[in-house]
Q: What sequence folds into this?
């Protein structure tokens, strides 16, 4: 009798937790080139301290603010651009700077205090 009571209690508790979880609605959205991502092959992802999502791809760095993308690509005429479009690693340091690693071993730093409009 005691085992049946424990089994019934566990079963009811599981159903209760399942129903609570079902009440929370979760929505997922795919992000791809149709939404503005520069390339569908994402090699690294980072969420910075301001909440921006950074996506490293084979065709540049992408910053997502929840609504739209801002793309950062190599520009030989701009010495403040990233040095290579194939981004392989992303890291945020204690100062909030974003470190960008590329497939050819170069590392670039996006300084948060620097206006991203200049990149």
A:
């Amino acid at each position: 009798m005691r085992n049946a009571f424990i089994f019934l209690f566990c079963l009811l508790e599981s159903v209760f937790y399942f129903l609570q979880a079902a009440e929370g609605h979760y929505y997922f959205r795919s992000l791809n080139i149709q939404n503005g991502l520069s390339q569908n092959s994402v090699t690294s992802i980072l969420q910075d301290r301001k909440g921006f999502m950074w996506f490293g791809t084979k065709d540049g760095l992408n910053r997502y603010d929840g609504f739209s993308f801002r793309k950062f690509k190599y520009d030989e005429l701009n010495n403040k651009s990233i040095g290579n479009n194939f981004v392989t690693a992303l890291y945020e340091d204690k100062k909030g700077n974003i470190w960008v690693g590329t497939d050819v071993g170069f590392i670039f730093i996006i300084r948060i205090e620097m206006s991203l409009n200049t990149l």
